[in-house]
Amino acid sequence: MAGTKKTILIIEDEPHIVMGLRDALEFEGFAAISAGKGKDGVQLARSENPDAVILDLMLPDINGYAVCEELRRISPFMPIIMLTARSQETDKIRGLDAGADDYVTKPFSVNELIARMRAIFRRAARPSAAPELVELGDAKINFSAHSLRVGTTEHALSFYEVELLRLLVERSGQPVSRDEILQKIWGLEAGPTNRTVDNFIVKLRKKIEKHPDKPVHILTVYGFGYKLATPD
Questions:
Q1: CA distances from 169 to 87, 155, 163, 190, 199 (A)
Q2: Given a cut of 60, is residue 130 above it in pLDDT?
Q3: In this predicted model, what pLDDT tens digit does every residue of 15-70 receive, in sequence order?
Q4: Is 104 helix (H, G, I), strand (E, B) or coil?
Q5: Neighbour-count burial for 40-77, b at 16+ CB within 10 Å, e otherwise
Q6: How far apart are CA 232 and CA 229, in angstroms?
Q7: 29 φψ region: left (φ > 0), alpha (ψ -120 to 50), beta (else)
Q8: Per-residue CA distances from 9 to 26, 43, 78, 154 (Å)
């Protein structure tokens, strides 16, 4: 039914990319709306309240980082996937720090992007065994509010940060492989150069750990993945 379709906002100035994404998304049962400029995309986000955003980094009026930050002010929960021709690790980290949930480098596979979208909504609809309120050391996490508080400082948590933390909490004390995290949360197959999971672990440690370079809560299982340490 049309009323149940998830709406994806595409903010991209290259018409052939917009056309390809719209066709693919609509074929897969999504509704698609688009804007060719950052300011127009922000306006559409305000008026149409999309379920997710595909955002190009290089736009003709303002850059994607600024657009991403504005979208985050509109909705801290809305999944945002950033598209760019840049492949530098520093650009990826900057995009994630601006509030993007994921980062896809052009040229990209439309099928992969669709898989990520499906994973987002599948994960969001899945009941979780994790409690809604969790404490990790000084950090108090509220999954429903997508927030994390340490003392008087509150951090908004993006969609993927929440889902990654939920998965680790559900499996507390057990190692969870990078491959499983990537497949369950991002809907992707593992690749030797895919650092998506590692980048998000870095983000979460900065918010949760007193000393992110010496974590005591989110631990690395070398050569495998990560685990959440159980309290003594």
A1: 32, 18, 10, 22, 18
A2: yes
A3: 999 999 999 999 989 999 999 999 999 999 999 999 999 999 889 999 888 999 89
A4: strand
A5: ebbebbeeeebbbbbbbbebeeeebbebbebbbeebbe
A6: 9
A7: left
A8: 12, 11, 11, 28
- Residue 76, SS3 per DSSP: coil
Q: Which amino acid is at 50?
A: P
CA–CA distance, 30 with 24 (Å, rounded to integer): 9
- Report the pLDDT averaged over residues 189-196: 63
Q: Residue 154 in contact with residue 164, Cβ under 8 Å?
A: no
